[in-house]
Amino acid sequence: LDDVSLTLLQALGPNEANLEEVPVHLSEILLLPTDTRPGAASMLAAGLWYKYRSSPKWAWSVWDNTFASLRLQPDASINVVSAQDRAFCYADFLLHVDQHLANGLDEHIADWLEKVGTSELVAINSEAWDSVIFTLLYLVVHGALTATTVLEKLVYPLWGHALSVFDGPERLNEQSPEVYLRAAHDVFARLLLNTACTPDGIPPNTF
Q1: Considering just the CA atoms, what is the radius of gyration of the chain in Å?
Q2: What confidence score (pLDDT) does residue 168 get?
Q3: By CB distance 3.0 to 4.6 Å, which of 19, 28, 45, 102 could disulfide with 96?
Q4: Contact 66, 29 (CB under 8 A)
């Protein structure tokens, strides 16, 4: 059997005896953009579901590891995968993950954003934000994530956090408020203020 057939058979006939707890770090997700096999994203999503589906937090962990991968900035001199290609790879992967969830991925990303999202997001730089924004908007456009979740759990909390920073002492391990405010404004504008889309269906990068 090839990898695709094996993954399909596993998904159709899961073996309850082989279920495992989800580890904190899922290296398969980090390495996904370098996997050149056709259908690699779909196979990884099915494989992770098959292996960890007994855990109610498996999708939460998958998103957490995907975010950790998106925030990394590979060395362009040795990495043949561009930042946008990596973001698209992870967005496509998450769409496949969404298909394995009875209630979809939205509630798991919403829970992550509510619990740890703000503290994680204020620490990433503008280049990482580009990848995160692309991925989130791709999920919104394709119905795996709601605009309401992005606005209520990401945009509005970041606005509130910025106000508390401006009114208080400087905080360690955070980017300048201008970085995440610009990102939050960008997301807000693309979701609510502009109806045109680029050819790939993503709200535009410029206005």
Answers
A1: 18
A2: 62
A3: 45
A4: yes
- Angstrom distance (rounded) from CA 197 to CA 205: 9
Q: Which residue has the tokens 């945009």?
A: 155
Dump pLDDT digits (tens) for 134-162: 999 999 999 999 999 999 999 999 999 99
Cα 129 to Cα 80: distance, rounded to the nearest angstrom: 20
Structure tokens at 104: 């979809």
Contact between 54 and 19 under an 8 Å Cβ cutoff? The reply is yes
Residue-wise DSSP of 77-108: TT--S-HHHHHHHHHHHHHHHHHT-TT-SHHH
Dihedral (C-alpha) 58, 69, 145, 137: value to the nearest 10 degrees?
A: -170
User: 22, 52 in Cβ contact below 8 A?
Assistant: yes
Residue with tokens 């979701």: 191
Q: Is the pLDDT of residue 92 over 90?
A: yes
Distance CA 31, CA 90 (A): 11
Residues 6+ apart with CB under 8 A from 77: none
Burial of 150 (0-12, 13-18, 19+ CB in 10 A): buried
Q: What span, in angstroms and rounded, lies between the C-alpha atoms of 87 and 73?
A: 11
Question: Tokens 């498996």 belong to which residue?
Answer: 58
Q: Among positive and negative, which fits the CA dihedral 180, 185, 191, 194? A: negative
For the entire predicted model, the pTM comes to: 0.83
d(C-alpha 147, C-alpha 194), whole Å: 13
Inter-axis angle of helices 58-71 and 40-52, nearest 10: 140
